[in-house]
Amino acid sequence: MESWYLVLCKPRQEERAQTNLHNQGIKAFYPKLTTEKLIKGRRTLKQSALFPNYLFVCLESQNGNFSAVKNTRGINGFVSYGANYQIVPNKLIEQLQCERSQTLESTLPKSGDVVNVSSASFKNIQAIYKEPDGDVRSILLINLLNKPIQMSVDNKDIEF
């Protein structure tokens, strides 16, 4: 009977370990989280491990090639509970595999959020985030002289 086991990987080597295990014919999986971030003022989508440094491996409980997994590049070893390797329930793996493509977490403000502008000419002024204006800029609503003004600001000058 096949079971899923939890494996500890070396830091930021989940992809390498998964590729090496697949090359050996061993089923391996780690869920990924896609996040939208501002990097150097640009909106970028970045994928990272949902559980950093961990990987799920499917092996036969009795005749599985555990030593091949332990000796695979990028892997430190199995997570154990006492003398036994940690088994992960099949339902959890199925749920993670179904949801892995749907996960999107945004670290950017949403329309209507209050933000602070940190550019030299508008230092410490509060504004309302309206929408993105390309990859590098965003449109904000700023209240100047009791009148709402719509303006485009560099993303690096927005604090939220």
UniProtKB/TrEMBL annotation:
Alphabetized, the UniProt keywords read: Transcription, Transcription antitermination, Transcription regulation
The record's section on InterPro entries has:
NGN-like_dom, NGN_dom_sf, NusG-like, Transcription_antiterm_RfaH
GO:BP terms for this protein?
DNA-templated transcription elongation; transcription antitermination
- Presence of the UniProt keyword Ribosomal protein in the record: no
Report which superkingdom the organism of origin falls in. Bacteria
Could you name the Gene Ontology cellular component terms for this entry? Answer: cytosol
Q: In this protein, which residues make up the domain named NusG-like N-terminal?
A: 1-100
NCBIfam families cross-referenced by the UniProt entry: PRK09014.1 (NF006534), RfaH (TIGR01955)
Q: Output this protein's name.
A: Transcription antitermination protein RfaH
Q: Which organism is it from?
A: Pseudoalteromonas carrageenovora IAM 12662
